[in-house]
Amino acid sequence: MERGLWCSTVTGQDAGIPADHILNLLFTPLSQSSKKLVNSVAGCADDALAGLVACNPNLQLLQGHRVALRSDLDNLKGRVAVLSGGGSGHEPAHAGFIGKGMLTGVIAGAVFASPAVGSILAAIRAVAQAGTAGTLLIVKNYTGDRLNFGLAREQARAEGIPVEMVVIGDDSAFTVLKKAGRRGLCGTVLIHKVAGALAEAGVGLEEITERVSAVAKGMGTLGVSLSSCSVPGSKPTFELATDELELGLGIHGEAGVRRVKMATANEVVTLMLDHMMNASNVSHVSVQSGSSVLLMVNNLGGLSFLELGIMADAAVRSLESRGVKIARALVGTFMSALEMPGISLTLLLVDESLLKLIDAETTAAAWPNVAKVSVTGRKRSRAAPIEPKETHEATTVGGVASKQMVLVLERVCTTLLDLEEHLNALDRAAGDGDCGSTHSSAARAIQGWLKEGPPPASPAQVLSRLSVLLLEKMGGSSGAVSTGSLQEQRADKLYGLFLTAAAQPLKAKTDLPAWSLAMDAGLEAMQKPCPYPKVIAYSKPRSFSFPARYGKAAPGDRTMLDSLWAAGQELQAWKKPGADLLQVLTKAVKSAEAAAEATKNMEAGAGRASYISSARLDQPDPGAVAVAAILRAILEVLQSQGV
Question: Which residues form the DhaK domain (predicted)?
């Protein structure tokens, strides 16, 4: 059942805000309130509206009132004006939807509070005196809003101004009919669009009122949130356990109708749609198999765009699995509840005539650029590009070299999996703590590839395929210089750069000098223009040249490059006639391990760790440690094989 006592005074501490929360707002010491970037609690609504108008030449403030209007008001003679509004804190609603084809103006209250009657009346008078042919007020169904807009309407009508009012209640949370009716939620924005399009087309006030009232009957909205929000100067409006979600909440920080356990995005969306479409729910929306709908996925203010996209995908898939056709889909922030980390789903039954109004042109800044085509029935993927044909040498598999390569790769994978927790621990000192996880993902991807069959006999092709594999499957910055330590620039890219470049010299030869050149090419690809030209200078065919700018790292920057570079210097000995493979490689591994250990005394010069105080970086760079471990694994396999 609905929680909280509702304040419904005309003067307004709103429109849906719980009375006990108003007391919190009045009496909570600022030291206990949440942090907000405001100049003052009392002036935050005025400042927010002023900021929007200051950045949008198409808007103007009405002097003496918290009202924003179209700046081209004088061009609306003979057309119906569409006004809406409510408490602040729902941005971009309501002022973000002022523009040609949507709202003529809005009247804003304080945060989560109804606008003043005098300001509403002033807005009506302003549009009337501009020569408009009547005014439609679009009001969300909250007591304070209904009363204040209603009083202003009656006063305006007493002055001879034609004014109509539609009250929107699209909340699908309540299973039992409430005396106050359904709350007005994000679906109200769609009514703004429909009414604005009709007004722009020159339709009369009475017809617009009738048509939007009919449209509103085919609409439902349901919200869910991970936690509450907090009005400036106050504490959060309700508390949720870490394993709970609030279902069916409104847009004023009030609690919902039910608390449920945390679940996956797919499960939460299924729960929401089941509730909204359940015919036994008195506030359900009559969507069924075969229905055509507009889907609106609304960020309640604090949800990440990543989560929003996941929820949108889940909603599309769930609706289509029920046989519902999605004619349009709007995803973004349309009506928020300050910083509330949650979403609402709105379903609007549509036909072709209604879609024309939804698709009609508008200059409202917050209205998205929606594709005027159906979502359902469109191809959502394109076939992958055809890969270049491989040479005979590249596609040859099997043989002694291939078996040795399998043994090397298997040992490398085992090593990285064993190091997962250690690398994560190192990474937590200066990164997001996922270096080990990133390398483990790469190891599992390589293991999966090896299970598909033996790798090519060509080392160049093996390195090229590993590069592609890591770019697709590995996260972090090592797959591109270190995955952690806040040096992270994305591991998949750095390993990818190294392997792609290293493969080039091995296309012509695979002797020891060629492997040394391969290391040189890989190192060059990972570095910015290097201050040590003599160190990396080497003679190689021009066709092996690789731009030395992508990784933007250099030796001494405290990245994985430090280990690789130290090993690369030792591997220069492979270019000398009669060089011993294992002897040189052993020195290279020891140098790499020493370089990795030395990174704990370095100040980061690249990647995420470069933004962290050097005083906090007292552990070796995890990417450098991972590289040294990889080289050690390669050495041990070759030693065991007696190469």
Answer: 40-367
